[in-house]
Automatic annotation (TrEMBL):
<keyword id="KW-0813">Transport</keyword>
<dbReference type="InterPro" id="IPR050490">
    <property type="entry name" value="Bact_solute-bd_prot1"/>
</dbReference>
<dbReference type="InterPro" id="IPR006059">
    <property type="entry name" value="SBP"/>
</dbReference>
<feature type="region of interest" description="Disordered">
    <location>
        <begin position="1"/>
        <end position="24"/>
    </location>
</feature>
<protein>
    <submittedName>
        <fullName>Raffinose/stachyose/melibiose transport system substrate-binding protein</fullName>
    </submittedName>
</protein>
<comment type="similarity">
    <text>Belongs to the bacterial solute-binding protein 1 family.</text>
</comment>
<feature type="compositionally biased region" description="Polar residues">
    <location>
        <begin position="1"/>
        <end position="19"/>
    </location>
</feature>
<dbReference type="Pfam" id="PF01547">
    <property type="entry name" value="SBP_bac_1"/>
</dbReference>
Length: 426
């Protein structure tokens, strides 16, 4: 989904002016508008709580919160861009999603206040900041880090005599054992298209050299000709055949799929660290059965890249059209102070803050704490394929993979469609 930012964005001179508008103290009055990705019932109280605390300090400040979920925020953002009505503060992913705002002059350059060598910048992990770095500048405040892991039900694994896999073949063996005991190995809903794309994103991180991936993410240099892509798809096909319900996944939403795991009706679910505390909440069957996680193993021949992990931080930008840029910046600093960073990282939210030294077992669950360490220790973070690529290429990935898992096209067909989309995006 293209945001069409360049066509209706402001000028570079306007961006320079907005950067200057960050200087000085804010006027603690007026209304700040925010677009968040915390629209689920579990997460929405966070921003409500933080804005309420900010208002206690500055009673003349009002907030208008627009809280969307992981899927709806894409359409909402496109609508706001089309009507030139982006809020003062808005959510962004890394990759091409963020780049569109910058190229369209829709965001304020925050480099002078959040670069790694600044007072505020030093409070964040450098890797999180650099994930948003664009041509040497920093336009985005990272709020939390994220990565993808396979969550599993310890009781169901034990019942089937399955072992936590350390290799991809070991994963297939575990799936076979689970099926022999009439247990659904992996709950997978691909109605939205991106869940399977996230599997593929981790697999190409194993099978395709990273310098090649970076070139292929850019339409100007993309070729998508490396043999590792077809290999990753053949591995994905084996996984689909051994571990899932097959083509029917395209009719199941991702929310229904994770609920199946929460209810103890499936042994595994490929989930983001952001979902750990929600899927493993008190009172759930998964919590009773015992929750665990492991990284999706590398396929044979690529085990030397096991340190590669799919994931990226997520963050917020300040609109270049904001009438309250200094106030927006002040609120973002308040949002990421240690108190609010700890609140974000602790249950029930379980979103590992990008602020350094916050995530530990004294506030966060042991699984969120350990997975955060895994992210920090990764040798390379592979960005989400649906945000690293241009929207048209990402949509082609999603639609072609839906056909691929249903058996209607081959791995070579998938890559031919992706190459065509990348060429048209130049």
């Amino acid at each position: 989904m293209s945001l069409s930012l360049s066509a209706c964005g402001g000028s570079s001179n306007a961006s320079a002016k907005t950067e200057q508008s960050l200087k000085g103290k804010p006027d603690y009055s007026g209304t700040l508008t925010l677009l968040t990705k915390f629209g689920t019932p579990e997460l929405s109280p966070y921003f409500k709580t933080v804005t309420k605390e900010y208002k206690k300090l500055h009673p003349k400040v009002k907030f208008e919160l627009d809280q969307q979920n992981d899927e709806s925020i894409k359409a909402k953002t496109k609508s706001l861009v089309s009507s030139n009505s982006l809020p003062d503060i808005y959510f962004t992913w890394t990759g091409d999603w963020q780049k569109q705002f910058i190229r369209g002059h829709r965001a304020i350059d925050l480099s002078k206040v959040i670069a790694p060598n600044t007072k505020w910048g030093k409070t964040f992990g450098k890797a999180a900041l650099d994930s948003f770095k664009y041509h040497g500048k920093y336009y985005t405040m990272p709020l939390y880090t994220d990565g993808k892991f396979m969550g599993y039900n310890k009781t169901l694994f034990k019942r089937a005599g399955a072992k936590v896999p350390k290799t991809f073949d070991g994963l297939l063996t575990a799936c076979d054992k689970l099926k022999q005991h009439d247990i659904t190995p992996v709950s997978l809903g691909n109605k939205e298209g991106w869940p399977v794309l996230h599997y593929e994103g981790q697999l190409v991180g194993y099978t395709v050299p990273h310098n090649v991936l970076k070139k292929d993410y850019d339409p100007k240099t993309a070729k998508y000709s490396n043999s590792g892509y077809v290999k990753s798809l053949s591995v994905l096909k084996k996984f689909v055949n051994h571990c899932t319900k097959g083509a029917s996944m395209n009719g199941v939403s991702y929310t229904n799929a994770i609920q199946e795991t929460i209810n103890g009706d499936a042994a595994m679910y490929y989930q983001e660290i952001l979902e750990f505390d929600q899927s493993n909440a008190k009172g759930t069957q998964l919590r009773k059965d015992g929750f665990g996680y492991f990284q999706l193993p590398a396929p044979a021949g690529d085990q030397q890249r096991q340190g590669v992990l799919e994931g990226a931080p997520e963050g917020y930008m300040i609109s270049s059209a904001s009438k309250h840029p200094k106030l927006a910046l002040d609120f973002l600093k308040f949002l990421t102070n240690r108190k609010n960073a700890r609140l974000l990282s602790a249950p029930p939210y379980g979103q590992p803050s990008a602020v350094k030294g916050v995530v530990s077992t004294d506030i966060a669950s042991k699984y969120v704490t350990q997975a955060t360490k895994d992210i920090n220790n990764a040798t390379y973070l592979v960005p989400w394929l649906d945000t690293a690529n241009t929207p048209d290429v990402a949509n082609t990935w999603k639609s072609s993979l839906q056909k691929f898992v249903s058996g209607s096209i081959s791995a070579k067909d998938v890559m031919e469609q992706v190459r065509k989309a990348a060429k048209e995006a130049e």
